[in-house]
Amino acid sequence: MLVWVFCSLAAPALTSHDPFRFVGEPYLSPGAPGHVFGTDHLGRDMFSRVIYGSRTALLVGLVSAGISALLGILIGAAAGYFGGVIDDLISRSIDVFLMIPVFFLLILATAIFGSNINFVTLAIGLTIWPSNARIMRSQVLTLKTRPYVLASTAAGASPWRLLFTHIIPNGIFPVTVNSALQTGSAMLTEAGLSFLGLGDPNIVSWGQMVQLGQRYLNLSWTMVALPGLALLSLVAGFSLVGDGLTAVANPRLLRGGGTK
Amino acid sequence: MTSNGVLVEASGLKKHYPLRTGFLASFLRSGGRRWVRAVDGIDLQIHRGEAVGLVGESGSGKSTTGLVMALLEKPTAGEVRIAGRNPFALQARDLREMRKKVQIIFQDPYLTLDPRFRVIDTVREPLGIHRIGTRDRRQQMAARALEEAGLPKNLVDRYPHELSGGQRQRVAIARAMVLEPEFVVADEPVSMLDVSVRAGIMSLMVRLKEQHQVTYLFISHDLAVCRYMCERIAVMYLGRIVETGDRESLLQEPFHPYTRLLVSAVPVPDPKASRKRVQVSGEIPSSSEIIQGCGFYSRCQEASPECAESVPPLREVAPGRLVACHKV
Amino acid sequence: MSAKTGPDRPVLLKVEDLSVSYRLSEGQVEAVDGVSFELDRGETLGLVGESGCGKTTAAMAVIRLLPDNGRVTSGRALFDGTDLLQMAAQELRKYRWARISVIFQGAMNSLNPVQRVGDQLVSALMLHGIPRKEAEQRAAEMFQRVGLEASRLTGYPHEFSGGMRQRALIALALLLGPDIVICDEPTTALDVVVQDQVVETLKHLQQRYNQGMIIISHDISVIAETCGSMAVMYAGQLVEYGGTVEIFENPGHPYTAMLLRSFPSIKGELRELLTIAGAPPDLSKPPGGCRFHPRCPLAEQRCRDKRPPARSLGSGRHTASCHFAGQFTLDDIQKKEAGRR
Fold this sequence. Notes:
The complex is a heterotrimer of chains A (260), B (328) and C (341). Chain A has 260 residues and is mainly α. Chain A has a single domain, classed as MetI-like fold. In chain A, 75% of the residues lie in helices and 0% in strands. In chain B, the strands form 2 sheets. Chain B has an 8-stranded mixed beta sheet with strand order 5-6-7-3-8-9-11-10, sandwiched between helices. A 3-stranded antiparallel beta sheet of chain B has the order 2-1-4. Chain B starts with 5 loop residues before the first strand and ends in a 5-residue tail after the last strand. Chain B has 328 residues and is α/β, with parallel strands linked by helices. In chain B, a hairpin with a 2-residue loop joins β10 (315-318) and β11 (321-323). The longest helix of chain B has 18 residues, at 195-212. Chain B has a single domain (6-19, 35-267, 276-323), classed as Rossmann fold (3-Layer(aba) Sandwich). In chain B, 31% of the residues lie in helices and 23% in strands. Chain B has 11 helices and 11 strands. Chain C is of the alpha/beta class. Helices cover 31% and strands 23% of the residues of chain C. Chain C has helices at 55-62, 89-95, 117-127, 132-145, 162-174, 192-209, 220-226, 244-249, 254-260, 301-305, 330-340, and strands spanning 11-24, 27-40, 44-48, 70-79, 82-83, 100-103, 180-184, 212-217, 229-234, 237-243, 311-312, 319-320. In chain C, strands 6-7-8-3-9-10-12-11 form an 8-stranded mixed beta sheet, with helices on both faces. A 4-stranded antiparallel beta sheet of chain C has the order 2-1-4-5. In chain C, β7, α6 and β8 form a beta-alpha-beta unit. Chains in contact: A-B, B-C. Chains B and C meet through α7, α8 and α10 of B and α6, α7, α8 and α9 of C.
């Protein structure tokens, strides 16, 4: 299944080399010669639209997961390490964030601030960091009392050094797994927004394609199915990456921490 | 400081941890907070070049004392002085300087090294923190510390998971020694090691002490190990020191009832020896209970009413022998 | 590797040439290799060795409580004449606990936390067909025998201290009056004073019930105090076997000799501890011949080539599996060790 993910990842490379006509012959026939996936209602080549859509999906997914990871790690680590009032403040904010239905928040945001894809990506990233923060926080709480951290403290290390060289690197793994999953869900979120018509009209997005295609369902079901399947497979791919990472970690954790 | 002067001194040292009560409970319970009195007032002097053993069972507060003496925890009350200065009253920069002199070796060899750091990097880190020498020089110093600690050369670039427990402990020792400290706190450094490996580590520590003139606070629950490693032994019970003395006289003729109990309970590796057991009743009270008098009162065979009322002070009953008991 | 028995000694358990191997991802691991020992009624046998030497595996193999990936590859375990290793599973189940019982390592942490301790004892008895009233009585009696107040039966495990839980488990193990009790590391993880109380309890019970006891431990002090005979294991092999006093006075195997000198003691003269260089071997690729030879200062070519047979030392059951059994002194070892360095 991981192979699938890599295909999708390679796709943008494929497509940026191919000067496929974005706007082509104006006929609606699917599966026609020269157009593997057919064309859409405006005559645009479906194949290249699906491929270009993957760039969008991946960009949104990876960047927003990245933002979420960065924020989550820093904020969660601060909460876990410094404790006290800082921890209380941060933890309560995390709780609040997790209560609010993120999707509606995003709808609101795009309605107010516009639907530029970069903004959407940023917005998604800014709303999903709490789960990473929580994970990182609990990791930090456990790790900060580990003897090797204390030993570094005894050697004179500053909190920054402790956090960035010892604590965070050792605690980051669950965040990585979570990020893989968040990439998938970010893609779905963007697709959802586009599907509702709130996405960026200037780029190609699978959600947008589904939205456009639904009117023509009885004429060309592939207009909807193709982007849908693409999205499905990419998201599933990332989920499987997450599962794979977890499986890899466990035997290593077991072996690494015990005696021979 | 004179060469036999006091290097490390604790006076009236206390370390209490708050017991986390639930949100509601803290309203309902009158008086609010409960505290775990891990260390409840100790006075201890460690002379330069000495190895003092701190002995006690679990809950005695010995590990916590070690953490405070290693400057990893702040005292709740009382003072610690290292070479005459109070480290907790220092500016951050001065404290950092002082940390070069005070190091610690932990109990669990599987948690004492960062699994992501190569062995050589772990030992190099303290040097890097204090920016001692150049990169190359630090590499050399770390390698030499590892060699002195008896780690085979071919393991120097490996990761902790490739090393055995005993080998990891050697790395921990090398890390503690690389800054050439004056005072090392060793918290049960051999308890989690295989028995045939322990002797090697103990011999190493003795050798290093002689070669580098290090002062040790050796924490252990094992009296036999303490006897081997230390010239003087201090016995802790429920956060307080109940007796100190040089090892032979303390073990041959313990004064405090708890020490007598402890000494009589240690199994001896000699099938023909017989031991006279000291009878005891009851269990160790919890460290969060507030006890007014002597902590051992509830189990002591020789107790009298005054023992329940006032805490016996640690006083000298014979040359070099301090005991905290009303009955001695 | 078998030991001699006296004329009318009631032998309870006779383990002959037991070998156990585990199937691991790295390959086959010969955890136990040709171990033989005997247990008489009223005898306390200590199985001594470091972690990984196979002592627990050997004992578990005898009552067939090995994990799924472990199998007995050879040997017999004769209990009262019948080979436990060949018995049908149904039969064996009747033996377990009723005739042979085990106190597992760290078992004090595996008491059911949501059930009263007394109930755990009683329900175990009832599972063996004993009516409730009688079960409750027996449980109360046994508690007192191990030094716990009967009133404690209504308590939950978290209300018991570590030592008390261990004693509750001893009570549990003795409830049906078994002939053999196997205690795996009964004193590890306990404080000295509590450890002593547990040791006392074990000795007292042993005298009272005259059962056979096997105590598995890495702590030779505990073995010295509780066991009349001992079996020293290293890397899956039995290196020395015999009476405790004899072995301590005259260790016949270099490993035993060095092990005894690597333990500090609070009594006796303060002398330098002996270090055994190296570390126990990887049992998926064990050394040939005598498994101790890579670390043995006395090792010669024949130690690498040929596995030493059990040589008899003195009268009685004392044997040591070494080509030089009984022919070396501690001085020889120390000299050779110094020479090696």
